[in-house]
Design goal:
The chain is of the alpha+beta class and 66 residues long. The chain has one domain: Response regulator (Rossmann fold, 3-Layer(aba) Sandwich). It has 3 helices and 2 strands; from the N terminus they run αβαβα. The protein has a two-stranded parallel sheet. Strand 1, helix 2 and strand 2 form a beta-alpha-beta unit. Helix 1 runs parallel beside helix 2.
Amino acid sequence: MIPAADGLEAMKLALSTPIDVVVTDAMMPNLSGHELCRFLRNSQTLSHLPIILLSALERKDTNHDA
């Protein structure tokens, strides 16, 4: 497990470190979990990674966005 302090750091780690899966919170500073997921899915080299998106929110629109 490689922790990241925020979404931007997670994005940089994903680009520079071999990883097998991404576990992220939906709400992070600098780059949200949703934005991180969008970045990963649009990346030619990272789009294959499984993503687990966590959220403490119970709003339906948050679940739909995920």
